[in-house]
Amino acid sequence: MTIYAYIHEYTDGQGNQKTTVASTFDPKFLPPGVVAQEFPDGTPLTVVNGQIEPEYLSSLSSTATKGLAQLSSQYFQQISAGFSYGENTVTLGRNDQLNNQLNLSVASFASLTAVPWKPGLEVLPTMVVTSSGTYWEPTVPGTTGTSEPAWISGAEVQDGSVTWHEILFPVGTTAGNILVDVPTALSIGASGAKFINIQRLQYQATKAQVQAFLATPTWTPGVSASVGNQIIIPQTGGVWTVKGTGVTGAVQPFFSNTTTVVADGSVTWMYVGQALDILNNILGATP
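The chain above was modelled as a monomer; its predicted structure follows.
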């Protein structure tokens, strides 16, 4: 049976303005000018932002909003906490992320433009040379010597008329900033981007699952249903799934949360659980 629900505003005995949901089984008894909404009989209703909603839907929407906000906060916390890299834990706060992006950009440019060291090389101020996996730029340009110098990390290296210093990058860790070379900066930058992307995808996957669940339809007569289809019963907030394939009947059967199987036309429904419990399980799926 269908009820016709509308918002009823009144003043109580103490002069307070009140809003409630009123309903009738016969639209002929609606107050003049009132636009009513139709709901299955027995559906608990409430008013949200001036609109009538089933209580289960209001509760689901509120839970989803709060849960996704909490997951978003956890997402940022997990990223900021960083990831393990060797013996260090690289932190990924906002400033760390910007720094690592800059490191990755500069390290990529250095690795792509570097030339191998050779004797008698005319070194320009912007030139980068590489030797044994290390990368160097001149503090004093000039001409390289006749034999390759000893490349000492962290020290200025004299080479003919050239003075070199190694290209190193600061990286934030839980133990403080450390200096890393070009290959390590490239590796950390790529690992950090992958780590951030994994966290983002986990959040987006959960958000999509929540949105899909909130769009679960209610029971409708004469509808084809197949395995995996689900419905929410407004009167109880219960979720039911199809067992087999068929077509729903002309009249909604009685769905009780104390019953596990309900026959409906040529469809058989199986009770899954309460919508709010299922939603909370979804929201808890991302660590």
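DSSP finds four helices and 22 strands in the chain.
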